[in-house]
Amino acid sequence: MRRFLPVLLVCLASFAAPARGDEHQLELLRAQVEDLQQRLSAERLEQVLSHAGCKAHVRSGQIELRELAGARLGRTPLRLTGRLDQILDCLDALGTARHLPAPPLVVTGLETAGPAERLRVEIHAWHLEKRKFDPRSSAAQLESLRDNLLWLERQMAGRKALLRLLDALLDSEAVHLQRLDCSQGKIRLTGLALQASARQAYLQSAAERIAELPYPPELDADGLRCPTPQQLQPGSGLNALDLDARAALLDAARLAKLDLILVGPGLRPLSGHWEGEGSKLLGALLADLPLKHRKRDKVEVCGLSLGKEPPRPVVFSRRPVSIELGRVPLEHIWSLLASRDRLGWISAETRQLAGGPRRCGEEDADPDRLRATLRLADLPIDQAASLLAWSLGKRIAGETAAVYLGGPDGPPAIPPAPLRTEPLRLFAASAPLPMLVSGLLQPGTALEVCGRSAHVHARTGPLSTARLLEALLDASGARLERRPAGWILRTGPGACTPAGARAEPGEPDRLAAILAGKKRGRALIFDRGRWSWLGRGYALADRRAIRRVRPTRVVLRREGGRAESLAPTARCAPELGRPGPSQFALCRLRLSATYNRPDGAALAWLTDPAGRTHLIERGDLIGRRCGRVQSISPGRMVVALECAAANEPSQVQIGLSPAARPGAQSSEQKSSP
What pLDDT shows up at residue 535? Predict the structure, then answer.
């Protein structure tokens, strides 16, 4: 036995040495995992998104990938929307909170009317939850957890490179990226470059940024195209491709120093070649467009109905007025003329009562809404008003406190109705006509509405209730009828419903109209899901109370809080001004026409992403990189970028190009003054 004891001890020692080595290896793995977990454990995603500058939400529930050694590694699919700077700040905030933004990644642009384009980014955010891993796990489980955390740490170190790549790809003056798709180890680009040299410089810069990523994907730029040159008419004249016809007519009248009034729905865009200068060019455009146009008092008038003689207004003065506006809602032109004479104005636009709320873009793009394009120089206000009414087949009526546009047969007969007796002032901004009429009736009077509704814009002085009702009915083409069970407001063919039963939805704090008299005034406010006439002392659903109703505003106050004022506002306030072409990237401006004169002078029409048209001359600044127009030739424009970025050419050439999508040429547009 003693002879075999040394051999047994040697064998036991040989088995104990590997056991102690494995235990040491496990301790090292536990230390590595614990160190990585302390550095990579993420904060709560809800807190990060609530403080992000962009609009962010989870596309679907959190996707749990796996649970390794008791630790939980997951990813969350996110959708971010906002400007480029907001998107980058949001992604940076996610990385700072240890939520790794990583592919699959999809970036698309959203069409907006502003100079700063909004983007939509769909991306997955990886994270490690703050929970203790299980130290009793096997070595294989700990090694798998460590490898995953090392991958996460390496990707986290390269997140700044991802932000630099997105910034370089999306903030370009000469390349408009329409879609970026990063998945399965490949980045696919879809867009349009102004010219081949701009595309080459753009791709070279993108390749340099991609090489900085921890796991560089392959670049696929087959979808990044250059425009095809357009066949043009040689020589002088106007070469147009999807040019807004109203903008062309307005600018042609400016070049010819002629007055122009154009009222009506949209026109087909201009595409082709026209020769002529000044009045000849304007005449050629009018002859080629399906317009009724006649010259009256040295003013070229285009309208829906041109009678024998324009009606003479009874209230407007002969004070001269100069206006140059394009694609502006007609009621705002009337308001402008009335304000020059310090008159109140009542107008109405037809709307369908049924249906949900409209977004601003949808309401502005309503094809049934009448728009006006004017170029008037020192024309008497009464002459301008009469020519506007003549173009519509309407007449102007009113008195010193209010004026309105009515039918040619005069105001409708109003049967004896239970009206309020005191003189009233009305201030309304896109208020429903049935609710305005109900506000003029005695409380408790039953009123039904038949047919289509109308939204009224009004601002009047003190008027008798009967005179105010007459103006509202005449301007909207409605009539009031008496029935045994009450009163009916007939605005056209259609079913009859109680007033307010199908009233258009609104925002809780939207104030649509004010009726102010010698007694207590009342305000038309959308509250608790319906339109209501409310007075002093009423508490709204958000606990604000009406303290005072004045002719032009309502004073609200919370209990123990500061007072605030609300004025009547339309759901979509009109914007007569517009961003200039120097607020858009050059790749977002479309050259839609050039006009070359025989004497060498040249003009160009640019269309921005909102559909507005800008008239450009040599030397003008356009784009965001100090772009200065160097030359304009038939169908071409050369722009020098005086402060171009490193990955951009110093000079680009833009050619005539059609609208980017079908139907874009018929969208609402505004020409430049």
Answer: 92
- Residue 201, beta-bridge partner list: none
539: pLDDT strictly greater than 80: yes
pLDDT of residue 61: 63
CB atoms within 10 A of CB 18: 9
Q: Which amino acid is at 575?
A: E
Cα 311 to the center of its chain, rounded Å: 39
Contact 173, 648 (CB under 8 A): yes
What dihedral do alpha carbons 152, 155, 156, 161 form, nearest 10°?
Answer: -170
Beta bridge mates, 522: 515
Query: Which residues does residue 189 pair with via DSSP β-bridges, in sequence order?
Result: 180
User: Hey, what amino acid is at 31?
Assistant: A
Report in angstroms the alpha-carbon separations of 19 from 5, 11, 13, 23, 159: 22, 13, 10, 6, 41
Taken as a whole, the chain contains a residue count of 673
Please state, in angstroms and rounded to a whole number, the distance separating the CA atoms of residues 63 and 78: 11
Q: How confident is the model at residue 661 (pLDDT cuts 50, 70, 90)?
A: very low
186 CB-near residues (< 8 Å, 6+ apart) = 217, 218, 219, 220
Indicate the pLDDT class of residue 560, thresholds 50, 70 and 90.
confident
- The predicted-structure confidence for 46-88, as pLDDT tens digits, reads as follows 777 766 667 777 776 666 777 777 787 888 888 888 888 888 8
**Where is 594: in which H helix or E strand?**
strand 590-596
Distance CA 187, CA 479 (A): 63
What pairs with residue 380 in β-bridges? 320
Which residues are CB-contacts of 430 (< 8 A; sequence separation ≥ 6)?
455, 456, 457, 512, 570, 571
Helix (H, G, I), strand (E, B) or coil at 279: helix
Three-class secondary structure of residue 123 per DSSP: strand
Q: For residues 360, 363, 367 and 371, what is the CA-based torsion angle, rounded to 10 degrees?
A: -80
Q: Are 546 and 133 in contact (CB under 8 A)?
A: no
Tell me the range of 132-136, 299-303, 488-492, 611-615 where mean pLDDT is highest: 299-303
- Give the DSSP per-residue string, 172-213: -SSEEEEEEEEETTEEEEEEEESSHHHHHHHHHHHHHHHTTS
Residue 528 in 3-state DSSP? coil
Ordered strands of the 613-617 beta sheet: 270-274, 237-243, 590-596, 602-607, 613-617
Residue 548 CB contacts under 8 Å (≥ 6 apart), including other chains: 536, 554, 555
What does the pLDDT read at residue 564?
87
Whole-angstrom CA distances from 606 to 267, 609, 614, 622 are 18, 10, 5, 10
Q: Is 627 left (phi over 0), alpha (psi -120 to 50) or beta?
A: beta
Looking at residue 359, the DSSP 8-state letter turns out to be: P
- Tens of pLDDT, residue by residue over 258-283, are 999 999 877 889 999 998 887 889 99
**Residue of higher predicted confidence among 464 and 38:** 464
Q: Which of 139-143, 344-348, 460-464 has the lowest mean pLDDT?
A: 139-143
- Quote the pTM value: 0.76
- Spatial separation of the C-alpha atoms in residues 326 and 184, rounded to whole Å: 49
Q: pLDDT value at position 592? A: 93
The 3-state secondary structure of 28-66 reads HHHHHHHHHHHHHECCCHHHHHHCCCCEEEECCCCEEEE
Could you tell me what percentage of the chain is helix, strand and coil, using 3-state DSSP and rounding each to the nearest 5?
Answer: 25, 35, 35
Give the strand pairing for 320-329 and 395-399.
unpaired
